[in-house]
Amino acid sequence: MVSTLNLKKVILSVVFIIIFYSPIFFSYAESYPLIRVAIIQDITSVTIKVKGFYEIKDPKTDRLLIRDRDLKTTALTDKKRILLGNINFNLERLLIKPDDKEAIFINGRNFRGSIELIINHYGRLLVVNHIELEDYIKGILYHEVSHYWPQEALKAQAIACRSFALYKREENKLQDFDVTCDVYSQIYGGRTSERLRTNRAVEETKGMVLTYNGRLLPAYYHATCGGKTEDASLVWNIDIFPLKGINCNFCKESPHFKWHAVLSLNEIRKKLNQAGYNIKEIVDISVLQRSSSGRINNLAILTKEEKKEILAKDLRIILGPDIIKSTNFNFKIINRDVVFEGRGWGHGVGMCQWGAYFMAKQGYSFLEILRYYYPGTDVQTIRF
Ligand SMILES: [Zn+2]
């Protein structure tokens, strides 16, 4: 039996779906948008295996160079040209395209789609996977969240990842690739990383993206906000209403809600100097400014000779983003050790993933989760 409250919820959801599911049309030349993922950068050789028929093309002219079957070779570089085994095509770029979309292995790892080899400025190899958008989302979702998470949280995450990927694709269209496969864009593990439940979340939200005023949203997300999400304009040069920051009431039970770290002043000095700061013995560290979310904007590092200012986000990367998990922290200096007590994990912008997890646990839908973390946005469906 459906209670009155549940009935209200159902009616509201139906109204929401009608309003927010109006399709938008993207002017893609291809039938399925492709994402170009840099999977390996700056190397001198890579092993390539293709099962079944494949083509090798010059990606600049689309000229067919070889059509054959069952490739097993090593790509190398020679005087700014690519060698496949001992074949020199006299080109700086090659596209290897299998007939079967799951047939290519790079250094033993299975990837969907095709592979472009590019010689970079230093004469070394850059390996770029050209992959259909939906397959790419399947390849990253497992790394971004646990596949055991509630389905509505997985669906919200799939839509955030898809929006972010398409936003990057637009931003980087003149570059050699759209995204990398590490934490600086989205962690991509290829075909090997797919799981049944995460794949289902991608299929059930196929083509859905977040938009704001009709434009794609750079749908940033992070592990745990610690109570308040951050204004994106304080972290990057993005100043839009959906990313101005909200109060998050859902991540208190996250394993990353609080963190603790201890680093000696000497360790901090060493790491700062490795990053190019020229700092003598540290006497004191103080906070210069915090944002309204409580995160630190900048700090002063005091030595006997001088006072150096540093952005908290830079200090976090230098000391280790997995040690200093956020810029929302307090600290005390005790016997030349800095004892940090912090909240949250990640930059704090956009969706709080653990908040989304607890929202889904409490029965919120993926649309409600996305509306909460990205206020003012619409979910629209790309027509392929
Ligand atoms: Zn949160």
Describe the model.
The chain has 8 helices and 22 strands. Helix 3 (151-171) packs across helix 4 (196-204), helix 3 (151-171) runs antiparallel to helix 7 and helix 3 (151-171) packs across helix 8 (366-373). The strands form 5 sheets. Strands 1, 2, 3, 4, 5, 6, 7, 8, 9, 10 and 11 form an 11-stranded mixed β-sheet that branches. It folds into 3 domains: 45-123, no CATH class; 135-223 and 347-381, no CATH class; 258-343, no CATH class. The chain is of the alpha+beta class. The protein has helices at 4-20, 133-144, 151-171, 196-204, 265-274, 312-319, 353-361, 366-373, and strands at residues 34-43, 45-58, 63-78, 81-84, 87-88, 93-98, 104-106, 109-111, 114-119, 125-132, 179-180, 208-212, 215-216, 221-222, 258-264, 282-290, 296-303, 307-311, 329-334, 337-343, 351-352, 378-381. Strand 7 and strand 8 form a beta hairpin. Zinc ion is lined by residues 224-225, 248, 250-251, 352, 355.
